[in-house]
Design brief:
globular, 28 helices, 8-stranded parallel beta barrel, TIM Barrel
Length: 751
């Protein structure tokens, strides 16, 4: 999540923004070859051929010439679940028209996805590179020679074959969906409720539309319940769930969505689970909308304006829409809100209420509290039993406590537990913004806001928002096995008087050891973190090696506590891509985007840390995971059957984390050396180190490839889909080989 600028609100046309030159891929003969390579595991050859204006046979011949082998099966499920991965990998290759052709979408479908699929356009950099139409060109002799060289690299580095998949992409979905015995009863005595999280694999943009993949299959719900979770959440956009009175076309299909929501709620209820909806409302509209409805217009940002929540008609729309949802889905557990930042919604949501003639005369705390009161009022209109959780995310310090004072007495107040904790790493003082497992909460901001809620004449219930499984410290693994840090956080929350806990944003819904340890500690307020970890390790891996697993979790936690946390690097850094992030021989000129493209934007990656400190801290973090892997691989020989398989899966995650952080250190050091050479620094020592880095990156990419082809969980996050697939790790090897064979000799010659 991020405070974002205008530009994403109710787009009716595809956004453009800046249109810089796209980044090339000099390790391929041309853009056509890059296109075929990057789409080979995700788009049928026939679709690629249509985009290129050629035959499927030509596409297949191009793939074979690069050593790719037979195209893997491109299933309907794969295409439904991977569209963000497809968009991202073609962002620098295709103009919008060809991207739409490849996806088989309309402009409206893509515009909605860029806007509402967790700020995808922000993640893509708030720009679209100006890509020329891509057309098939018959390869010449030089191209064929380069194809052959790529194929040789593939054979040398990946002897098992380019498209070998022991576990196909999204294989984890069927695994998590398998029926299991319900096990929620062990946690019913817990006084900490709700305990809710997002789906590990739900589609974010429009999860309730007809034909959308099931976000919570029964088997998966049962697995979450067995981990101590008793509720789940999904995004809802009001104009998709209820009639939008000023433009009913926006609400087409809302009845079907309500029906599908009700069916999910019923299935969840049967397993002791509730469902919450996330609301960030009302969505802003393009300025043209207000030509017909000027009375609704609030604060303006660019080509968009807020629907002013001081207007009675807007107030009625919010309350009545919520009432309709509650009426149609009476067993819905409730809602939680973000009311400052994210989308432009109310006039003070981006802290610019002074731009509105009405809201400029009102305090931000009054407007923010009123929006929550309107939603709460909608619940009461329906005489519903739903509850509202007001999340203080984005509330400014100067008025947050006043907003808490104004909230209705039946609303719960939620704070990010670890927010604003001061800490020092590598001699650098810093402060947590949010999303941290490496820094352990709760922190001063949460304690202050919880105190304000509890000290009211009529106290509010208080909730903690944590990340039990993973954070943007590495969002492409299902969990960061720094389990001791999670256990310590749960111990620290005792005595905070919180009544419920949100266990994660969109990342972190996997039924992992982290989640299970947190669940056990929530269920038994006297259970220590040590005992909870041991109990979970015994259940998952057997008594014989449980203690060794706990020791490994502790080692991971100690190493991870050296991670160079910085709020800038959290969103900008390469930790989600790891070895899949390419290296560039020259500065790209691109700014890193929010958990999207890290590019080579080292200043944003490192934040407050000097480059050498950032590198050193990443290496320390990597070392903790590597040491844990080394120790547990010895234990692997002592295990058999299901316990052995479970331990191998645990090792996959630990090893992947270590590889990601080791690569982050390599990438940062490469950029420092590259720029030193360009600035006229000593080339001899720098070139030797660069060559060593390139060799190491080849090794890291190959190692991660070996793990990912057998563990489809790696590289995936619900709102980003796959950050990388095995073919991207293979491309990284080709990228590094090209730099060694083509670029380095030119630098050596100049030296």
């Amino acid at each position: 999540m991020l405070s974002i600028c205008a530009g994403l609100m109710l787009l009716t046309a595809l956004p453009t923004g800046p249109t810089p030159e796209p980044l090339g891929a000099p390790h391929f003969p041309d853009r056509v070859h890059a296109f075929v390579w990057r789409n080979w595991p995700l788009a049928p050859a026939e679709d690629m051929a249509r985009v290129l204006g050629t035959s499927a046979e030509n596409v297949e011949r191009t793939a074979q010439a690069m050593g790719l082998g037979k195209q893997p099966a491109i299933t309907k499920e794969l295409r439904q679940r991977s569209y963000i991965t497809v968009i991202r990998r073609n962002w620098h290759l295709l103009p919008y028209e060809q991207l739409l052709d490849l996806l088989g979408w309309t402009e409206d479908e893509l515009a909605y996805t860029l806007r509402e699929d967790d700020f995808l356009y922000v993640k893509l950099g708030l720009l679209k590179p100006k890509c020329e139409p891509l057309k098939w060109v018959e390869p010449d002799d030089a191209t064929r020679a380069r194809e052959a060289a790529i194929a040789q690299t593939v054979r040398d580095s990946f002897p098992a074959g380019a498209t070998t998949e022991v576990e196909p992409l999204f294989g984890f979905v069927s695994e998590l969906s398998k029926p299991v015995d319900d096990a929620q009863s062990a946690y019913e005595s817990s006084k900490l409720s709700p305990r809710y999280c997002y789906s590990y694999f739900a589609l974010y943009g429009d999860a309730f539309m007809d034909g959308a993949p099931d976000p919570f299959p029964d088997g998966y719900l049962s697995r979450l319940a067995a981990s101590g979770v008793n509720a789940v959440w999904l995004q809802a956009v009001l104009y998709k769930m209820a009639p939008f009175p000023w433009d009913p076309s926006l609400s087409e299909g809302h009845e079907e969505r309500l029906k599908n929501l009700a069916a999910l709620v019923a299935r969840a209820k049967a397993r002791g689970m509730g469902v919450f909806l996330y609301l960030n409302e009302p969505r802003a509209m393009q300025l043209a909308f207000y030509d017909k409805h000027p009375e609704l217009k609030g604060a303006v940002e660019g080509d968009y304006a807020a629907m002013c929540t001081s207007d009675p008609a807007v107030q009625q729309y919010i309350a009545s829409s919520v009432a309709l949802i509650c009426d149609r889905v009476p067993d819905l557990r409730g809602f939680f809100t973000i009311t400052a930042s994210e989308n432009l919604t109310n006039c003070w949501s981006h802290h610019t209420g002074q731009k509105c003639p009405r809201c400029s005369k009102r305090a931000p705390d009054a407007v923010i509290a009123e929006v929550n009161a309107l939603i709460d009022g909608g619940i009461k209109m329906a005489s519903g039993g739903q509850r509202l959780i007001a999340w203080d995310w984005g509330w400014q310090d100067e008025w947050a406590e006043k907003a808490i004072e104004r909230l209705p007495s039946d609303v719960a107040q939620m704070s990010v537990s670890e927010w604003s904790i001061p800490f020092t790493r590598g001699g650098v003082a810093n402060t947590v913004g949010e999303y941290s497992i490496s820094v352990i909460g709760p922190g001063p901001r949460a304690k202050k806001h919880w105190g304000a809620a509890l000290d009211r004449p009529i106290a509010l219930q208080t909730f903690a928002k944590i990340q039990a499984n993973t954070t943007w410290e590495c969002g492409s693994v299902p969990y960061i096995p720094a389990v001791a840090n999670v256990a310590k956080h749960m111990e620290n929350l005792r005595g905070s008087n919180v009544s419920g806990v949100m266990l994660g944003w969109t990342l972190g819904g996997y039924p992992a050891p982290n989640l299970e340890v947190a669940g056990k500690m929530i269920a038994d307020a006297k259970l220590s973190g040590e005992d909870a970890m041991l109990a979970v390790a015994q259940r998952r891996f057997g008594d014989a090696i449980a203690a060794q697993v706990v020791d490994a979790w502790k080692t991971c936690s100690t190493g991870f506590s050296e991670y160079p946390y910085d709020n800038s690097g959290l969103y900008s850094g390469p930790q989600h891509m790891g070895p899949a992030n390419p290296l560039y021989e020259k500065p790209t000129g691109y700014a890193a985007s929010m958990v999207g493209f890290p590019y080579d934007a080292l200043p944003a990656w490192r934040g407050a840390y000097p480059a050498d400190v950032y590198v050193a801290q990443m290496r320390k973090a990597a070392k903790g995971f590597a040491e844990s892997v080394a120790s547990l691989k010895l234990s692997l020989e002592k295990t058999v059957g299901g316990h052995r398989m479970e331990l191998q899966r645990e090792l996959n995650i630990m090893e992947a984390c270590g590889l990601h952080y080791a690569s982050c250190a390599n990438q940062a050091r490469f950029i420092v050396l590259r720029d030193q050479i360009a600035a006229g620094g000593d080339k001899t020592a720098a070139l030797q180190e660069i060559e060593s880095i390139l060799q190491d990156e080849i090794s890291l990419a190959a190692q991660l490839h070996t793990i990912q082809i057998r563990d489809s969980r790696l590289g995936f996050e619900a709102t980003n889909h796959y950050f990388y697939v095995p073919m991207d790790l293979m491309e990284k090897v080709i990228n590094c080989r090209d730099l060694m064979d083509r670029w380095l000799p030119t630098i050596h010659a100049a030296a």
